[in-house]
Amino acid sequence: MSLTGNPLAGTLGQAVLRDVTLRDGLQLTGKLLTADHKIETVRELLRLGVPAIELGSMARADLVPTMANTLEVVQALTPEELEKCWIWVATPGHVAKASAAGARNFQYCLSASDSHNQANIGRTTDQSLAALPEAVEYARAVNGQIQLCIATSFTCPFEGYISEERILSIANDPRAEGTADIVICDTLGQAVPAQVASLVARVRDESPARRIVYHGHDTWGLGVANTLAAIQAGAAMVDGALGGLGGCPFAPGASGNTSSEDILFATRPDWLTPVVFGELVVLSEKLLAELDEPNRSKSAQGARSKAEVFDWVVRS
Fold first, then answer.
1. Of 111, 143, 162, 291, which residue is 20 to 30 A from 275 by alpha carbon distance?
2. Active-site residue list
3. Facing residues of 105 across strands?
């Protein structure tokens, strides 16, 4: 039997990867990337076929310095490129500023727990929800779309376990009307596949019809398993970062994102070939080396093995 080609292509449905390297991936790094380097990275990811990218955040530059040049990146990209790019926002003002720069896809983030929302955004969860309708209107005014992103959907670093009912109450809140997607976030990477599958399925079945997005971290080594569980339960988009880079500066215990390489190797989307995978591995290695960050991707490490009869090994 031939080992060439992509025999698993499309076996996990239509879920797409959103690479969040340039936002969540960079939040805890000690080094900054120039706007030009970020623009080059966006374009290289798009060239390789990555269907969606989170390119940055409107977080305050004094709190998250690595996001300071986000609007410069937005302004440099074409409308066609920006159609595939998302930007993290937390207030209506963020949406207004980002849309003026050209952004059209917005991820409006709040936390299921008040404690983390205060640490991350400086207000209660209810205050964030109260401002959401205005953010939706700003997005609609530019024919854009906005996601409701629920951080700490499973556990909070300050309050512990978060109930499914809490997530459903936010997803079903009338003030979330007009959001295109619900992003369920395992911010601390403490969830297990059964939890992820249960919550994704309940939000899918018990809240207004919207695309379900899953955002996971690999703190406890279950990032890929949780992502697969989310896809099988109905998630249509999943987040990852090159090399497992990243974490939340306002959530003690949150480590790197689930690796984009690992998600792609596991799910084998139709556009992914061994050659493209190899180019992603090289892109990731160069970026991580510049940032002085370790490569946490098991698939990227496997791609550098000596098992050269396996098509997915990188030979250059």
1. 291
2. 248
3. 145
